[in-house]
C-alpha cells in the first residue's frame, strides 16, 4: 500500500503549505504531488517556492501563476490581464531569488506515474487553442471530465486550477482536483489537500483540511505591502484588508 500526498494551488501561502505537509506526513505519505500555482496571490512566494524546491519527495507541476511572474515584466501581458494584476506578478518576480525563478521556469506541465499497479496522470489544467491554461469548468460532470482530460492515460487524473475542487468517478477512473490549498475563498482557516491511497490496482481518495492561522496571512499582506492586497484578500480569502 502506498499513500501519496496530493495538493494544488498553494499560491504563496506558507502557513497553509506547512500545515498540509505536516498533516500528510503524519498520515503516512512519503511521496507528494503539487499540481501547480505555487506562487502568486499570497504574501510568501519566495518561501513557498524555496520550501517546495528543497524537498526531493515533492513533484511539482507548472500552473499559470508560475509563468505569469516572467510574463508581466512589460506589456503585452497574458490575455485578459489588467495592469493591477500585472503589478502583483512583478512584485512576485522581485520577491523570488534567481534560483527560485530558474526552478519555476523548468517545472513540467504534466507527468505520468505508475504506482502500485495504478497509472496516474497529473497536470495543472489543459491548455486552450492559444496555448494558455483554459478557464476552469465549474462543477464538472463525468462527461465534462472526459472532454477535458480524456486524452490523458491512467486510472487517476489529478489537476488543480479550479479552486473549488472536485472528485468525479467515471467507471474505473477518478478525476480529482483537491481544491486550492492556499486560497480558502471564505471557507476559513483550512488548507485543502488529501491522501491518494493505492493498493494492488485499486485507489482511494481521502480529502483533508488541516487548520492554520489565517490571521498570520492577513497580517503578512499588510507587512509586506503586497500589491493588490485588498482585492486578493477579498477575492481569494474572503477577508477584509487589515487596514479596513
From TrEMBL:
<dbReference type="InterPro" id="IPR050126">
    <property type="entry name" value="Ap4A_hydrolase"/>
</dbReference>
<protein>
    <submittedName>
        <fullName>Metallophosphatase family protein</fullName>
    </submittedName>
</protein>
<comment type="similarity">
    <text>Belongs to the metallophosphoesterase superfamily. YfcE family.</text>
</comment>
<dbReference type="InterPro" id="IPR011152">
    <property type="entry name" value="Pesterase_MJ0912"/>
</dbReference>
<dbReference type="GO" id="GO:0016791">
    <property type="term" value="F:phosphatase activity"/>
</dbReference>
<dbReference type="InterPro" id="IPR024654">
    <property type="entry name" value="Calcineurin-like_PHP_lpxH"/>
</dbReference>
<dbReference type="InterPro" id="IPR029052">
    <property type="entry name" value="Metallo-depent_PP-like"/>
</dbReference>
<dbReference type="GO" id="GO:0005737">
    <property type="term" value="C:cytoplasm"/>
</dbReference>
<feature type="domain" description="Calcineurin-like phosphoesterase">
    <location>
        <begin position="2"/>
        <end position="185"/>
    </location>
</feature>
<dbReference type="Pfam" id="PF12850">
    <property type="entry name" value="Metallophos_2"/>
</dbReference>
